[in-house]
Amino acid sequence: xxxxxxxxxxxxxxxxxxxxxxxxxxxxxxxxxxxxxxxxxxxxxxxxxxxxxxxxxxxxxxxxxxxxxxxxxxxxxxxxxxxxxxxxxxxxxxxxxxxxxxxxxxxxxxxxxxxxxxxxxxxxxxxxxxxxxxxxxxxxxxxxxx
Length: 146
Fold this sequence. Notes:
globular; alpha/beta
């Protein structure tokens, strides 16, 4: 390719990069806490899609994302013990470094231990969901409740 054409091509590429819309530019690192305390499966699925879209837009390396789960949302993790589709959804999010924080008070209310839930480690259980959200906000996390 002649030098003239290479310069034109390079200029065209650089022009396109400079004129990217604001939404297409890189985001700064984000710390986000999603609040999930509802039991409607369609709403939980929509929230998990939002989380996937959020990670895709920002990039896995540019986000620290936690999901605080309490109330009826706990049932999703109970059902996931035997529901392969829910297991795949949770595994996919965890693979993208999403941490689910489970409310200990909700576990007590359901008369369950973390072992009754799908893949919940001891460090994933917090004493109470709402104070955990506030603590994360105090640590700089942005609150999201779809």
